[in-house]
Structures are given as structure tokens and as C-alpha cells.
Amino acid sequence: MPFPMWVAQVNKRVTNKLLVRLADRPPFAALNHVGRSSGKAFRIPLNAFPVEGGYLFALTYGSGADWVKNVLAADGAHIEFDGREIRLDAPRLVTKAEAWPHLPAPVRAALTVLRVDEFLRMNAES
After folding, report:
1. I want to staple 107 with a disulfide (CB 3.0 to 4.6 A). Which of 40, 71, 87, 103 is the partner?
2. The whole model's pTM is what?
């Protein structure tokens, strides 16, 4: 069950603006994406988990979050992670069963408490 959308709105207007400055240090990343309707560029902080050939993202606000819809519509995005800019493509929603083995135990514990069960997987372009 994702966080309530009012929490997302507070984060979008306040928290993200502060955290995005630190977002290029693992496990955080800065995700750069383009609005599907507005065409506006957005940069948001989130946790990125490297997996073979790409990255995994826990969808704490669910698959209905604007950034997820934008990334799916654009068929990709860029992240700033560990001092590098990485182009990601082929976004797809994955199940908890598929994502779980790739996440560290403390992250799994936190996501269990938060009842997060939706994930996004993207490939890193080579």
C-alpha cells in the first residue's frame, strides 16, 4: 500500500527540494525526467538499487505517482548516481517477488513496515 498522496505533495513542495542536493550519493539518486503533458524537466531524489544491467526503484507512492507515469510515457529517464549520469530505458513495473532478492535486508524490512509492494525496473544503456 503506497503512502498517502498528501505526503507526496508535501515531499514534492518541501522535502525533495532539500534532499535533491544530496541525491547523487548512493543509495540516493537524482532522477531526471520530463513531464508527459507539460514537457517540463523535473529532478527528484529517490533510492536507486543497482541490479544486473540496470536499477530498481521502490515505488513508495505506488505506480500512480507522476514521476512513474512520466518515466513510463517517455520510455526512460536519466539518473545521477555515484557521480555519474546514467541513461535508463525500458522501464517496467515488477512484482515484489521479482524485486525482493535484489534489495538489502534493512531495505526489505523498511519496505515491509511501509507496505510497499510495487517496484520499477529500468535498464542502464550501455
Report:
1. 103
2. 0.80
**DSSP code of residue 27:** T
Lookup: cell for 72: 513510463
Residue 57's SS3 state is: strand
Please provide the size of the chain in residues: 126
Residues 57-93: pLDDT tens digits? Answer: 999 989 999 999 999 999 999 999 888 999 999 999 9
* Coil, strand or helix at 8: helix
CA distance 79 to 82: 10
CB neighbours of 87 closer than 8 A, spacing ≥ 6? 76, 78, 124, 125
Q: What are phi and psi of 106, to 5 degrees?
A: -65, -35
Alpha helices in the chain (DSSP H): 5-10, 16-19, 66-74, 96-99, 105-113
Which domains are seen in the chain, by residue range?
5-34+43-124 (2.30.110.10)
